[in-house]
Amino acid sequence: MPVPTLAVLTAAGSGTRLGLDLPKALVELDGLPLVVHAARRLCASGAVDTIVVTAPPGLREHVAALLQDDPVVDRPVRVVEGAGTRQASVAAGLSAGLDADTLVAATAGPSALAQPAVDVVLVHDAARPLAPPALVRRVVEAVRAGHAAVVPGLPVTDTIKRVTPAREGDPSGAEPVAETVDRAALRAVQTPQGFDRALLVRAHESAAHRADDERSAATDDAGLVEALGLPVHVVPGDAAAAKITTAHDLRVAALILREER
């Protein structure tokens, strides 16, 4: 019997740049909050067994009710309150998910204690609500194939310039170009990111001193693994897994949904 996969779904961000007076994960896309879209697709992958959602402060019960009432979210879901940074929120979700995992193993009897009930952990952002189920499966399969840290990524198509600071006193603020970067080896990274359970726990424990400061906190979990000096592998991403940051992104996501239909 396969060992289960846990997904930590981060939904605690403010969404200020969307220009709306509610957290980003609760913004509606085609009549459903982004967090519900994201949870539905994790479930539809067939590769996720349990989900822990990190909710905006004070909204844990509201988010829990949204997911509990949705007929398409057919996996066990636990909702915890997020923290001040993404790294701290993921750590809180990871802790909650693995605490529940330990409880399940303990109640299952002595034979279940020989190995953790979860061996693969996905970390996903509700801000990428349309990540396809096939992408979720691709990441999980790569971790189970022996790659302990896996991220989806898309080739960079724009020309990339590395610049130096503008000259002091230049009223235009124009930045001098230092070089044109070879984009062939560049990837724009997405979520869900997948990890061997023990490695992700180790990475978060090692970087716990950075978690509470937005200036030092990691913007993705693969970066924490890289900080340990350990390899991260990239599998093909998907354009549908684009991040929603602005109102324009939300309109593009609505178009993607219409095209899917």
From TrEMBL:
SUPFAM superfamilies: Nucleotide-diphospho-sugar transferases. It catalyses: 2-C-methyl-D-erythritol 4-phosphate + CTP + H(+) = 4-CDP-2-C-methyl-D-erythritol + diphosphate. One of its GO terms (biological process) is isopentenyl diphosphate biosynthetic process, methylerythritol 4-phosphate pathway. One of its GO terms (molecular function) is 2-C-methyl-D-erythritol 4-phosphate cytidylyltransferase activity. The record marks 183, 243 as: Positions MEP for the nucleophilic attack. Pathway: Isoprenoid biosynthesis; isopentenyl diphosphate biosynthesis via DXP pathway; isopentenyl diphosphate from 1-deoxy-D-xylulose 5-phosphate: step 2/6. CDD domains: CDP-ME_synthetase. It holds the Pfam family IspD. Its EC number is 2.7.7.60. The record marks 17, 24 as: Transition state stabilizer. Keywords: Isoprene biosynthesis, Nucleotidyltransferase, Transferase. Catalyzes the formation of 4-diphosphocytidyl-2-C-methyl-D-erythritol from CTP and 2-C-methyl-D-erythritol 4-phosphate (MEP). HAMAP family: IspD. Belongs to the IspD/TarI cytidylyltransferase family. IspD subfamily. NCBIfam families: ispD. This is 2-C-methyl-D-erythritol 4-phosphate cytidylyltransferase. The gene is ispD.
